[in-house]
Amino acid sequence: MTRTFLALVSAAVLAGSLLSTAAATGRSPARSVGVFYYPWYGTPSLDGAWQHWDQAGRTPPLDLGTTFFPARGAYSSSDAEVVRAQMREIAATGIDTVVVSWWGRGSVEDARLPLVRDEAGRAGLDVAVHLEPYPGRLPATVAADVSHLRAFGVRDFYVYDSALVDDADWAAALPRIRGVRFFANTALVGKALAGRFHGIYTYDVLLHAGASFRRICKQARAARLACAPSVGPGFDARRATTIATTRDRRNGAAYDTSWRAAVAASPDVVTITSYNEWHEGTQIEPARAVGGYASYDGAYGREGVTAETAYLDRTRAWIDHLHGRASAPVPIASPLAVRR
Q1: 280-318 burial, b for 16+ CB within 10 Å, e for fewer?
Q2: Range of the domain at 88
Q3: What pLDDT does residue 331 have?
Q4: What is the pTM of this model?
Q5: For residue range 187-225, what is the model confidence (pLDDT) as tens digits?
Q6: Mean pLDDT of the chain
Q7: What CATH number does the domain containing 231 carry?
Q8: How many domains would you assign to the chain?
């Protein structure tokens, strides 16, 4: 046997051991649901300036860098009342874990993590970290990151754009970090295994709308890696970025399609892109109808105020199905009657 082959086998055994440990704690990984959460929004009154709402040169509070308009308006992620309400809202759907976007030590996301952790805990939610590609992020720095973040009770780390670093560099660093799980942002099981990750997640709902989930999870199980495909309602970043490609919500049918595929793939974790990534239009956080913005009107046959929580309510229905408490949600009558 070559050293490379032995290393890959060792990684697979470690991943299987971690999965068995998770099962032994009483929470089956197959019934776990996480949602990607962004604590990067700010307002002049609480944070000294607009943060993120002014992306692409927008001028808040009415002109925002988002295709949809938040029901809460342009809020601050350092507002304890807002974060408390968000965590309760997330918990009410049956989601288990908030996967918090984190941009390194000293970032605003780092400063707000204690608030998110506290309010998530009060709502009965676990906290994981979405380890973003902050300047200077290297496998060698991740060990220090984990040491810092474990103090907040974090045990799962989702490494966004993990392919920015060579597999060999991840493989040299990750086995030295004990007691946590690392998920690689990739659909290539061999790549995650070569990097000595414990699992994979897809995140991107433009590239991965569900058709590949069964294959990915089957390959991950064969390699004894955790599979965490990412479901999402759609994608529209045109008001905030130069990305012109969209994935229409189809009045909720797109969300149902990705959920149906995820459940059929028998994943270890279902991840949701996202709770509040407003710039990319992937959010399930409530949105209200405001002139010049897309709305949730038409989603699952709802209109007006009742449509604002349509995607949260649909999330609860799918999680009930995932847990075996209900049959799969009934498809909407006219998915092609499009109104984002």
Answers
A1: bbbbbbbbbbeeebbbbbbbbebeeeebbbbbbbbbbbb
A2: 3-322
A3: 86
A4: 0.89
A5: 999 999 999 999 999 999 988 999 999 999 999 999 999
A6: 90
A7: 3.20.20.80
A8: 1
Q: Which amino acid is at 308?
A: E
Residue 328: inside a domain: no
Who wins on pLDDT, 145 or 333? 145
